[in-house]
Structures are given as structure tokens and as C-alpha cells.
Design brief:
mainly alpha, 0% strand, flat
Length: 121
């Protein structure tokens, strides 16, 4: 199954191979990876349609509405892919915990506090 599940396109197969090369995943996370690969293929297809369609688009509102729907779907698919990849990353075996600066936390407010402390001293 190194080439990935049946039906994946080139981009999905590449994502499957490269992901398995760096991650050790549970069976449940393999299912998420499969769906992420399918979304990657879908995004490739949407991009091809958008690029091809944008060449012919003029300012006609009807034509723009056609491509704006594709753009909206592409954004939704991108968000779904991002969420799946975040879930997969959390589920990898042997994942090292996030490194936290011992002088402070990792959030924006912590960064602001560290900058203020550095400015004072």
C-alpha cells in the first residue's frame, strides 16, 4: 500500500508516500490521511478548473459567480485539509511534545511579556 489507497491521483499518492515516510500513524489516523490525500487531489482538480476558467473570465457578473463558487469550494476544501493534517500530526506515534521557552509560554501574550522584559533590562 506504499502507493496509497486505490483511486488516488498523482498528488494524493505523493502525499501518502511522503507522509508515511515521516509519520508512524494509528489505523484511525491512516483513514484521516487517506481522506486528506483525496482532498489534495480534489484541490488539484479545482485549481485546474479555476486556472482554466479564469483565462476566459471577464467582468460579466454571471461568469464571475461561476468561478466564485469554485473559489469558495476550494477555500472550504483547503480548510478541511488543514484540519485533517493537524489531527494527523497530533496522532503520530512518538511525537515529541512542543518545545516551550523556559522563560515564558508560547502564546502572543507571553511573547509580548518577554519583549517587555527584554526592553527593561
Amino acid at each position: 500500500m506504499s502507493e496509497g489507497p486505490a483511486g488516488l491521483g498523482e498528488r494524493g499518492r505523493r502525499m501518502w508516500r511522503e507522509s508515511l515516510a515521516i509519520w508512524s500513524l494509528t489505523p484511525a489516523h491512516l483513514v484521516l490521511l487517506e481522506e486528506a490525500c483525496r482532498i489534495a487531489d480534489r484541490l488539484e482538480l479545482l485549481n485546474t478548473i479555476i486556472v482554466r476558467g479564469s483565462v476566459d473570465v471577464n467582468t460579466d457578473a454571471a461568469q464571475f459567480a461561476d468561478i466564485s463558487g469554485l473559489l469558495a469550494e476550494s477555500r472550504q476544501q483547503s480548510a478541511a485539509l488543514k484540519a485533517l493534517l493537524a489531527e494527523i500530526r497530533q496522532g503520530q506515534h512518538g511525537a515529541a511534545p512542543a518545545k516551550v521557552d523556559p522563560a515564558g509560554g508560547a502564546g502572543v501574550s507571553d511573547l509580548t511579556a518577554r519583549i517587555a522584559r527584554k526592553a527593561q533590562g
